[in-house]
Structure formats: C-alpha cells, structure tokens
C-alpha cells in the first residue's frame, strides 16, 4: 500500500542460468486478465525510453543501474491513484526472463506533515519546522503556513520569514521541510497555525497545532544594598507585547510609587514588590532593600569635609616598644609628609584621597588602615555643549557636565535672543554619580535662543557660559509657529504679532508662512485670551537664510579721474549668512576675466580697461553686480571748453618756426606777425602729467600760449612732432 502524492519502492531481484547475460530490464503495468504484457504497457525500460507510457515518464527509476548485480528494484515517485494495479518484470538477454506480477494499491494521502514547535517566549524570535511526509525524490512539494485567530479566517503570518529545505538522505530518498521564523507576541497565544503540503496532481495534506506563548519574567535591576544618604534606584522591566503595566509597592504600604529615592534613610529598608499586568496575566517579583549606616568617622573609614576646612590628621600608635621615632604619611600610596600629625590649613578638592600613616621604631614599622577623605565642594568647570546651528525638525542633544561633590542637580535654561533678561526652564535632572546631564529634542523655531546650564548641590550653585542655538530657515522654505497655552476656562482667541510690522498678522493658534522671504524675519509673539484675561508669550526670533542680494560696486574717489591714478572699488551685498568670498571681474568686449578677490579691489585707472563687476558668495548661493564703467580721463586728449580754450595744462619746452623752401634768399624770410601768408612749421614738445591741446588754426596759437602756462616737467619723454600748414586768407 502506498500514499498518493508520495512514492513507492518495489523490491526486486532475479537469478539466471550461468550462461544467461541480461541486456535490459523492462517493467510493465498490465491487467491481470492479460496473458502477456505488450509494449504499450511498458512503464520503465533501461535502454528504450521512447517505449515508456507518457504518464510514467520521469517518475520511475532503477535503484541499481548495474544489471550484473541482479537487482531490478524500482522507485515510483509522485504516486497517483491510477497507479494501482499489477506490475510485471521482464529481463531481456540471450534468454528472456519474466517475473511473476506484483500488485500494490494506491490510495489518497492519509499521512500528515510533522510540525515541530519549540518553547515560545514573547518577544524572542523563534523557528517553527514543518516536514513533509514520505522520503521521495520526485517532484518537490509546496509547503505553506497559515494562522487563524479565535473565530477568525485563516491568514498569512505577518513579518515572517519562510525557508524551504531539501535533504538528500540516499540517492533516491529526500526529506522536504519548511522553517517559519517570526516573533511571537501575546496575540498569538491560544491561536492555531497550519502547515499545508501540496503534492503533484493536486494532492494535499496538512497539520494544525495550537500556539502557547509565554511572557518573559519580571526583571529587577539596581543595587539592593545602599548606604545611608546615598540614592536608591531600582528598575522593574518585563519584555512583552503590548507593553505591560508595571507598578511598584512596598510591603506594609498601600501607595504605589516609582523607586528612585535620593538621600535614603534606614526606614527605606524593606521588601519591595514589582507587579506587571499583561493582558489576563499578572507577574510579580520581590526584592529586599538593605540600608547600611556608616559608623562614626575613625581610622579606616570615609570622612567628609567642606572645602576650606582646617583639618589635622593624627597618627596614634596603640602599642610600641620603644616608641616610634618616625612617622610617614601617604596619600594614594605616595609619600606626602612626615610627622605625627598632617595638617590642612584649607583643604581643597584635590586633597581628597586615601591616607595612611606608617610608624617606625628601631625594631620595625607598622601601618594604619586607610582613611578616605572626601572633600565637599560646589560645582566647578560647568560645561554646556550644543550645536550652534541646526535645521528645523533636526534632533539635537544638549550635554552639561560639572565637577562637584556631592553630585549636582542640573537645570537647562533658555532665553530668547531678543530678551536675554527673561529665561524659561527647559529641563531638569536630579543628581547622578557621573555629574552629567543630557537633553534631546527635535528643534523648532521656538528653540532658538541662548542657553545656560545651572548646576547646584549642597555646597553652592554655578552655571555655564551662554551658548547660542540658531535654528536655520532658508528662503522659500515654509515654517509654522505654534501658540500653546493652558487656561481655565479654555482659550477663546489667539492673536499673532510681529514686532517689525507692529501689527496683528494672524488669529489662529498656528501661524504658517508657506514660502519664507527675508522680510519674514523678525520677532514674533502670540497672545492667548479667554473670558478672564489675556496672556502673552515671549518673542521668538525668526531668521531667514538667503543668498547674496543687491550686489553693487562703489568707487573711491568718485570720478571722473585721470588715467593712471589709483582707484578703490568696493563690492557690497546683503546676505544671511554673511558673504564669505568676493570675486572681481574685468569685462573686455563681452569676455569676463578674473582680476582679484576680496571686498575691495585697488586698481590703476585706464581708459582701455574700465568696465568691472563683482560677485558675492555665501553658503546658499552667489549674487552678481551690474557692470560698472569707470569715468577715466585720457592723457592723450584733453577736453576743451566751448570757446576752444584749453581746460588742462599743456607744457611745451620751445617752439622753432622755419620756412621750408628750396631757395635760400633773403626776400623769402617771413615775418611771423604778418597775416595772409602760408607756412609749414615743426613743433617740438615735452609732455608731463597733463594732456596736450591741439589747435585747428595757427592764428589761434598766440592766445593759446598766453592762457596755457608751462609748469615744471620732471622727466622728458619721447618727442612728438606735429606738422601745421598755414594758408593765406583771402581779402574780402
């Protein structure tokens, strides 16, 4: 008998005569009424696969391929109910051999998969294993997992991981299994989980089991033995889902409370119980707390002194013969003094430590027990750490540390940037041994301001230096301000005000700007009102970050100015954060060339290169000025007034006039004062810092030289020559 969907092994062997040599093995499935099985009944053939029935192809294998072993056993996989019937064997060789038939029935699957469930603990990841029935090497079955709650339909288990495994046991046998990995919770307790195995041909079998999930035990952590005056901290926890309700109680009291007690006394001793309620379950655990009272200060114990106290330590010897003649004092193992006494005129925190005295005589030496001196002092070295600039919504952590004994209490205070005199308490922490306090929150615009950390203990109070926190908001980003208030009766109206505008800008509890611009920066405050009165918030400063705008170029001195003179160009721009770099460009025929950096550019004025521009850059972008053309006066052409008079100095060294003629006759000499004649002349000149005047008519030269007086010339430059032709004027 075999199960549908599984497999069956038909054991078979044969014996032949000595001279018989087998060449192939053929298995048939044919009706018992047939006298002889024919080729159409073949289900397996060792040498001719084409003769095998279609429904058996690939499902039948010979366990031992070597026919000389006389082993004709076969395995049939993926059994179907139609496989029931009579099977016969024929061994072909030089003589044919036909076995007696073998019959086996195939029936529907009755074997169920095997489901292995370990101990389930809530919150601990676990693995469930489902193994398919049978050890067949045929087609791989499909294994699925479903979960069904009480009175609910089946569904897939969420947040699970399934893994399919196939294990080869022998060349013809395999074990198929699936592993389900998931985190059990209380909602899985008492529910059913089903493993379903699907074989080829639509044959299925399944197994259903119930889940039992255990809740983890209650854990109590903390030091159960403390000294009088110390802090008792106990933590009760239980890993469960959903979270359990945890409560503390002390036997003999009715009050429930959290066990965190500072400066404990003897009456704190006793039995405490932590109770955790989880669904219908109640778990509890007890702990016994012991408070130890320190003995009166004596050698070998800890004593406390205040900073500045005058202290005398004395080394007393109970028995000695002869009496000690030498005393040595040590602090933390190092020599610090000699003598029967060791004095502190004003004890300091660094004087604390473990002190011993050693007494010596001529025979030997003796050492006292250690005495621990603890110096109490107010907080010092208070350090507040926080980022100077954050984005809105970013999580930030503020850390405050101090040095003190006993440990200090911490308080974080914030004041707005606009009103440093008024501050609010952001967070408070009780004393801890590490003398450190951290506070984490998601930054909003309201968190911008100046922060200080105030630290105090029994000896005094100190505070850190102010640290500024700026919440970044870029141009075109949106921001919202919330107006929160507590009142009875409830708040009936809200009013938002901006100091720079000095007017109301909103009447809802939330004021929103969808696209911020630089003009949206300023001090905001809100006013909440009910039927009894009005309350007003501290102002909140909103700073908008934007790239450089209104970038301009200014010139000093202002033009016009002579060529080759020194000129300063200044680049100015409005930006937040401030401009971090400037770049100067010279514009030459449409092409821009970098000529310098920095907000000020010093140049020598030139008529050739007179167009400049600058760019200003910060972390958000770059601003660009317009092209600025300098008003430069050329030294090659001085400007003239409307009456043709020279407007600038002209310097000439001498003037030589000669007649140009091939004949050198006396009568050809010319009187320069005569008019109506035409002459050619050359002009030789010296040029200084002034420009030259050019005349259109030689008759004007007399008046020109009368007005343009020469001045001292420091250096002679290349001579320039001008040719002037005088024409005779016609008489009217």
TrEMBL record:
Residues 113-210, 216-290, 297-374, 379-470, 475-543, 548-631 form the Ig-like domain. It is a single-pass type I membrane protein. Residues 624-645 are annotated as: Disordered. GO terms for cellular component: early endosome; external side of plasma membrane; extracellular exosome; recycling endosome. Keywords: Cell adhesion, Cell membrane, Disulfide bond, Glycoprotein, Immunoglobulin domain, Lectin, Membrane, Repeat, Signal. GO terms for molecular function: carbohydrate binding; CD4 receptor binding; protein phosphatase binding; sialic acid binding. GO terms for biological process: B cell activation; cell adhesion; negative regulation of B cell receptor signaling pathway; regulation of B cell proliferation. Its main location: membrane. InterPro entries: CD80_C2-set (IPR013162), Ig-like_dom (IPR007110), Ig-like_dom_sf (IPR036179), Ig-like_fold (IPR013783), Ig_CD22 (IPR056386), Ig_sub (IPR003599), Ig_sub2 (IPR003598). Most highly expressed siglec (sialic acid-binding immunoglobulin-like lectin) on B-cells that plays a role in various aspects of B-cell biology including differentiation, antigen presentation, and trafficking to bone marrow. Binds to alpha 2,6-linked sialic acid residues of surface molecules such as CD22 itself, CD45 and IgM in a cis configuration. Can also bind to ligands on other cells as an adhesion molecule in a trans configuration. Belongs to the immunoglobulin superfamily. SIGLEC (sialic acid binding Ig-like lectin) family. Predominantly monomer of isoform CD22-beta. Also found as heterodimer of isoform CD22-beta and a shorter isoform. Interacts with PTPN6/SHP-1, LYN, SYK, PIK3R1/PIK3R2 and PLCG1 upon phosphorylation. Interacts with GRB2, INPP5D and SHC1 upon phosphorylation. May form a complex with INPP5D/SHIP, GRB2 and SHC1. This is B-cell receptor CD22. It comes from Kryptolebias marmoratus. The lineage of its organism: Eukaryota, Metazoa, Chordata, Craniata, Vertebrata.
């Amino acid at each position: 008998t075999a199960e549908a969907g599984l497999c069956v092994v038909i054991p078979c062997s044969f014996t032949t005569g000595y001279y018989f040599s087998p060449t192939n093995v053929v298995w048939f499935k044919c009706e018992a009424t047939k006298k002889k099985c024919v080729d159409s009944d073949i289900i397996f053939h060792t040498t001719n696969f084409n003769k095998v029935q279609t429904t058996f192809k690939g499902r039948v294998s010979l366990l031992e391929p070597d026919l000389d072993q006389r082993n004709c056993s076969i395995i049939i996989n993926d059994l179907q109910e139609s496989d029931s019937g009579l099977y016969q064997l024929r061994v072909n060789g030089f003589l044919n051999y036909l076995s007696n038939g073998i019959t086996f029935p195939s029936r529907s699957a009755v074997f169920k998969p095997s489901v292995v469930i370990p101990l389930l603990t809530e919150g601990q990841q676990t693995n469930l294993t489902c193994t398919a029935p049978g050890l067949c090497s045929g087609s791989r079955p499909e294994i699925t997992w479903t979960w069904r709650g009480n009175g609910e339909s089946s569904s897939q288990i969420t947040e699970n991981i399934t893994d399919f495994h196939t294990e080869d046991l022998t060349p013809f046998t395999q074990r198929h299994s699936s592993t389900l990995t998931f985190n059990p919770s209380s909602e899985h307790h008492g529910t059913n989980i089903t493993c379903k195995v699907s074989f080829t041909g639509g044959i299925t079998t399944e197994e259903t089991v119930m889940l039992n999930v255990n809740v983890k035990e209650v854990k109590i952590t903390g030091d159960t033995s403390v000294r009088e005056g110390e802090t008792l901290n106990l933590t009760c926890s239980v890993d469960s889902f959903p979270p359990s309700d945890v409560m503390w109680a002390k036997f003999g009291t009715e009050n429930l409370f959290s066990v965190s007690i500072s400066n404990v006394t003897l009456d704190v001793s006793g039995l405490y119980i932590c109770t955790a309620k989880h669904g219908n379950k109640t778990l509890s655990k007890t702990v016994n707390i012991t408070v130890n009272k320190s003995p009166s200060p004596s050698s070998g114990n800890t004593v406390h002194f205040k900073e500045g106290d005058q202290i005398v330590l004395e080394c007393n010897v109970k028995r000695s013969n002869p009496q000690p003649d030498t005393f040595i004092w040590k602090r933390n193992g190092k020599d610090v003094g000699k003598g029967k006494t060791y004095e502190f005129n004003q004890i300091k925190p660094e004087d604390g430590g473990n002190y011993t005295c050693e007494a010596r005589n001529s025979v030997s030496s003796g050492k006292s027990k250690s005495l621990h001196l603890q110096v109490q002092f107010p907080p010092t070295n208070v350090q507040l750490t926080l980022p100077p600039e954050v984005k809105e919504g970013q999580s930030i952590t503020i850390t405050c540390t101090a040095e003190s004994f006993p440990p200090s209490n911490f308080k974080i205070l914030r004041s707005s940037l606009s009103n440093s005199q008024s501050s609010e308490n952001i967070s408070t922490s009780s004393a801890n041994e590490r003398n450190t306090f951290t506070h984490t929150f998601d930054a909003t615009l309201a968190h911008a301001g100046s922060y200080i950390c105030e630290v105090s203990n029994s000896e005094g109070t100190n505070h850190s230096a102010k640290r500024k926190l700026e919440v970044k908001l870029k141009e075109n980003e949106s921001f919202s301000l919330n107006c929160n208030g507590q009142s009875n009766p409830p708040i009936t109206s809200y009013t938002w005000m901006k100091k720079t505008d000095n007017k109301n800008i909103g009447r809802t509890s939330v004021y929103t700007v969808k696209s911020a611009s630089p003009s949206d920066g300023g001090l905001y405050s809100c006013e909440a009102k009910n039927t009894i009165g009005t309350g007003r918030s501290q102002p909140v400063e909103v700073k908008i970050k934007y790239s450089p705008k209104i970038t301009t170029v200014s010139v000093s001195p202002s033009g016009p100015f002579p060529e080759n003179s020194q000129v300063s160009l200044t680049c100015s721009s409005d930006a937040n954060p401030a401009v971090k770099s400037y770049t100067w460009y010279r514009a030459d025929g449409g092409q821009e060339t970098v000529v310098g950096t920095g907000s000020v550019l010093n140049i020598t004025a030139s008529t050739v290169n007179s167009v400049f521009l600058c760019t200003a850059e910060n972390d958000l972008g770059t601003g660009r000025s317009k092209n600025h053309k300098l008003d430069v006066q050329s030294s090659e052409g001085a400007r003239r007034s409307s009456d043709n008079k020279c407007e600038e100095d002209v310097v000439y060294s001498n003037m030589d006039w000669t007649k140009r003629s091939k004949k050198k006759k006396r009568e050809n000499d010319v009187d320069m004062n005569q008019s109506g004649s035409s002459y050619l002349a050359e002009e030789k000149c010296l040029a200084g810092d002034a420009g030259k005047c050019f005349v259109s008519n030689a008759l004007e030269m007399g008046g020109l030289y009368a007005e343009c007086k020469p001045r001292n010339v420091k250096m002679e430059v290349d001579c320039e020559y001008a040719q002037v032709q005088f024409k005779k004027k016609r008489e009217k």
